[in-house]
Design brief:
This protein has three helices and no strands. It is an all-alpha fold. It has one domain. The N and C termini lie far apart (67 Å).
């Protein structure tokens, strides 16, 4: 029995094709896990900050700081949930893409009419990769909105503690609003 090296090369090539998307998924998964860790670290820092606030004191400074902490907790809770879902979806995408790679080899080596299976798994994997990317876009917008809230707080503190007036810059035309 002669070995068809040309056919074997085509099979291996087709099996490796999903590897590019698997690599992209892995990179995005690592990045998302790092972002998740940073959000957790920030929540812990906010917890320490909240615990350090004086009890029963209602100065403008303490009220502003409490408001900032409360706002940041809301932003970070939403970010945490989006990042967790993005990670789950990235893991699913990796599984689907690995499944596509394996089924390419199985379908080609067994000569079974399974050509639809790797295509379906590959399409599903690419679609879930896209869905996770959309979640990361939403999360990054929340991160920016949270940072803008912190910037406004810092402006209030600077204005209160110095003679520098509180200047609120308008949003650039055509720019991203908070909506």
């Amino acid at each position: 029995m002669a070995i068809d090296f040309t056919g074997a090369g085509e099979i291996l090539g087709a099996m490796i094709t999903p590897a590019l998307l698997i690599t992209a998924s892995g990179t995005l998964t690592m990045s998302t896990a790092n972002r998740l860790g940073r959000v957790v670290d920030r929540i812990r820092a906010l917890t320490d900050l909240a615990e350090g606030l004086p009890d029963g004191v209602a100065t403008d400074e303490v009220i502003d700081k409490r408001e900032l902490i409360a706002n940041q907790i809301v932003w970070h809770t939403q970010r945490l949930q989006l990042l967790q879902w993005a990670l789950v979806i990235f893991y699913a995408a990796i599984g689907l893409l690995v499944g596509a790679s394996i089924t390419v080899g199985v379908a080609a080596s067994t000569k079974l009419a399974l050509g639809w299976l790797p295509v379906t798994l590959g399409f599903a994997g690419a679609t879930t990769l896209f869905a996770a990317a959309v979640l990361l876009i939403r999360e990054s917008r929340l991160a920016v909105r949270g940072s803008l809230t912190e910037i406004e707080y810092v402006r209030k503190v600077v204005a209160r503690k110095t003679t520098v007036p509180l200047v609120i810059h308008e949003k650039p035309e055509g720019g991203q609003g908070e909506g």
